[in-house]
Amino acid sequence: MAGRPTPGCLSDLEMESEEPTEVEMSSCFLDEETFCQCCQLLLQHSHSLCDGWSWEQVKGSEGYLRKTALGTGRTRCILDQQGNSSDQHQERTFSLSFHNDEDDEDDGAVCCIQEESSSSSVVQYEYHILYSCSYQTPVLYFRASTLEGRSLCLEEVWDSVHPNYRQRLQHRPWDTITQQEHPLLGQSFFVLHPCRTEEFMMPVLKAALEEHRQVNYIVTWLSVVGPVVGLDVPLSYCTQVPEPPHTPSSSPQPPSSSPQPPSSSPQPPSSSPQPPSSSPQPPSSSPQPPSSSPQPPSSSPQPPALGTKPG
Amino acid sequence: MADDKDVLRDVWFGRIPTCFTLYQDEITEREAEPFYLLLPRMSYLTLVTDKVKKHFLKVMKAEDIEEMWFDFEGTSLKWHYPIGLLFDLHASNTALPWSITVHFKNFPERDLLHCPSNSVIEAHFMSSIKEADALKHKSQVINDMQKKDHKQLWMGLQNDKFDQFWAMNRKLMEYPTEEGGFRYIPFRIYLTMSDRPFIQKLFRPISPDGHTHTLGDLLKEVYPVAIPNDDESKRYQVVIHGIEPLLETPLQWLSEHLSHPDNFLHISVIPVPSD
């Protein structure tokens, strides 16, 4: 796999001028087994914090992390003649889009009727972390509803994104939020598009590799994407959750037997994370991500007190 | 290869005769006549049903119109699935024309995606193409195309222009000769008898020792239930574009010729009809 860096989507990274090693190239992608292991480690820490994550499994299929949380969002409400508001939401898309389908540039802009105001209110969020085998990354799915049980529309979800992150979403179309079908449940969810994941993960993982630090892929990834959609990731995750045990082979070639996906190990070759290790790694400075994304928290690894076998 | 090009045309020009009937509880000013339409298998419901909407709007008041959606025998139809897939999955063994019920109220928020404009359909379509290329070529081919090339794929689909579409799509169907095929095959297997909407996994068209994988090999690996054991009678039909391809068909060939315009092989596994 010599030569060009492994492409994700539109790559404008500084990496293009370098010759990444095989380990580096495979390290920004996540295989499914490592995904599960990272999730189990996150889960253990979540239990200790009562942070609400659980592992769900639809019968006969893959599993995913799930969490519900109350947060704030901006929701629409209808004002009646007296100016009183009620939480109802009607869609009038087709009386407006009826005449001019071909020219219609707005995505979801005609989602809500005119006599409305937008206000801050309590919103019930549900977050799922799934694995995408197509992109070999995790993907964040979420849905949001008012306390009365009404689902938020895409416009309201956009309005609920913190202003700090909104610019990022607007300027980079592949960071956008869209409505998608949940691949395991078949229901409507909102999704942060996964194809740019590699772009922000690669520098972090590369720095960790160079500095011999542990990185739990899911924790790092979640700390970047979660806050965009109202999901908080307490700092202790980054200090307390270890990476899964590293398998020696970092070659992305498929095994010689029946058709299996290649089990490339995305973990940097750190010294053994076996419990209970007696030699902690020296703390290191935080990695420098590309300037347009928020800083991932620095991780100072400690000897893993938790078992590294997935639950 | 002349035969293979014909397959591409047959797939593109497949049509399903459909009868659209307004849901009985919708409020109308006078009786609504059913509306008949030939639907392209390879397109999407919300892209080709403007005429249906206009037809029923003639007998309804504007205030009774919300987002249009469809159901078949009580199952709401996902507009983001290709029309041919919806038919094969839900109505394969029913009499033609396909009878679809039209709704303008009570949009099923949990189950259906909203589709406020054609640009949502375009975004969905392009997203599928990109995902397929991530599997086939690690996104190299789609990323090397310019924005106008992407647009050409969409316009070809939207305007039913086979040549315009395939002028671009053929690039997505190429592969290095020494590889023998794509990196992974973009496919989804849809099940009616499961909560899970579809199965999608990584699967190579050629094994490491050079053996060509078939449709049967794929099913044995990811959904063995679909293939009967020797002593059992066949319980399921494996349908692509309304036909049951032989299980010996090479998967690479299927991917190049029987994919939908979104570059995915959409495979339905449905119970064999009992009558």
Level-1 CATH class name of the largest domain in chain B: Alpha Beta
Mean pLDDT of chain A: 67
| SSE string of chain A, helices as H and strands as E | HHEEEHEEHHEEHHH
- Total helical segments of chain B: 10
Question: How many β-strand runs of chain B?
Answer: 9
Percentage of residues in DSSP E strands of chain B:
15-25%
Q: Poorly predicted ranges of chain A (pLDDT <50, ≥5 residues)?
A: 1-25, 88-115, 249-311
Structural class of chain A: alpha+beta
- Kindly estimate the percentage of residues of chain A that lie in beta strands according to DSSP: 15-25%
Coarse structural class of chain B: alpha+beta
CATH architecture classification of the largest domain in chain B: Roll
Describe the biggest sheet of chain B? 5 strands, mixed
Helix percent band of chain A: 10-25%
Alpha-carbon distance between the termini of chain B?
A: 39 Å
Mean pLDDT of chain B: 94
Q: Tell me the overall shape of chain A.
A: globular
Q: What is the element string of chain B, with H for helices and E for strands?
A: HEEHHEEHEHHHHEEHEHE
